[in-house]
Amino acid sequence: MAPDLPMTLRAAREILGVGPFYDAHALRTAFREAAKRAHPDREGGADERFRQVVAAYHRLQAAQPVPAERLIVQPPVPRPAQPAVLAIDPLTALRGGAAEHRLADGRLVRLTLPPGLRAGDAVRAGAETLTVSLSGRPELMVRGDDLWITAAVEPRLLAEGGRLAVETPLGRRIVWLTKKAGERKLVRLAGQGLPARGRHRQGCLFLRLAPAEAGQADSAARTLLRRFAAAWAA
User: Is residue 79 part of a domain?
Assistant: First the structure.
């Protein structure tokens, strides 16, 4: 017959109903309550149950429990509140305009935004502070203070240089394209990006030039112009 295995600390705690951290007073109180319930002279009690309670008490006495007052509980580290975000498009960042935002209490507010907002700027909406986020498309995006536009250009013009008409959010711009700029496929127009505002400087307009197929340059410019007009009208 196999000898009885010694009672584990976990089993002893379960029998007396104490947690892993307790002091001598809590242990005695738990023992008295468990002993009353398990005493064979009481209804529902039994000799075996009573012996287990006594054994559990002796097991936990010998375990040198950690007093509850010595337990160091680290308070939960509060997570920083996520800032509310107001997403705007490059045209609104350039010219300003109206935007809508739903507050934490469910109300929908309409905001009038100034020209020259950048990503990370703060905007007040009622009692909330919103952080500006800029969206964009490959043909029109914002980088820092600068506007970037992709324009389709005839390969001959890229190779030889010459007069280039480009539709931009500020209207049509006539650019003299040098051979070097055509090789780089990039033109910089100083002072025609996002307007200066607060700590932000006046931005530039960068034209990324992509070789166009026959007839694509004109249609791409018209499409871009329609998108500018539709976004501004909205």
Answer: no
d(CA 225, CA 171): 9
CA-based R_g, the chain, Å: 37
Q: What is the CATH number of the domain that holds 49?
A: 1.10.287.110
Q: Is the pTM of this model over 0.85?
A: no
- Structure-derived torsion over alpha carbons of residues 222, 223, 224, 230, reported in degrees to the nearest 10: 110
Note the pLDDT tens digit of each residue in 66-125: 554 554 556 676 766 667 888 999 889 999 999 888 888 888 889 999 999 999 999 988
Containing domain of residue 117, as a range?
84-134
DSSP code of residue 69: G
Nearest Cα residue to 229 out of 159, 172, 163, 179: 172
CA distance 95 to 177: 27
Using CA atoms, how far residue 24 sits from 21, 57, 64, 67, 190, in Å, is 10, 11, 9, 8, 80
Give the helix/strand (H/E) hosting 218: helix 216-233
Alpha-helical segments (H) within 8-114: 9-16, 24-38, 47-61, 90-95
Please write the tens of the pLDDT for every residue from 137-161.
777 889 999 999 888 888 888 888 8
